[in-house]
Write a structure and sequence with these properties.
The chain is of the alpha+beta class. It is 39% helix and 25% strand. A hairpin with an 8-residue loop joins strand 1 and strand 2.
Length: 97
Amino acid sequence: MKKQHKPFKAAIEDAVEAVLANPAAGEFKKGDLQGIQVFKFKFQRVEYLIACRFPADSAISSAVAVGIEMLSADFYKIGVHENFYDELKLYVNAMKG
């Protein structure tokens, strides 16, 4: 994000806040990308995708059990639809192996 313009950075930050506010709104992926959710947002009439993964429910419930309310997510990629899923698969597979 360092190289992005301020308006685009602000749009990404707003999208990330929206994702964290409503984690069920994303589209769950299958196959190689199982466990990853993809959310969409628009900036200057261009649709962007955000890929992220939320921790297992057990991590959230254990945090709530000790009186801490928190939500975290691992964000993998932000970009336009073209080659988004191919690049995301390469990245996820590289992290696994």
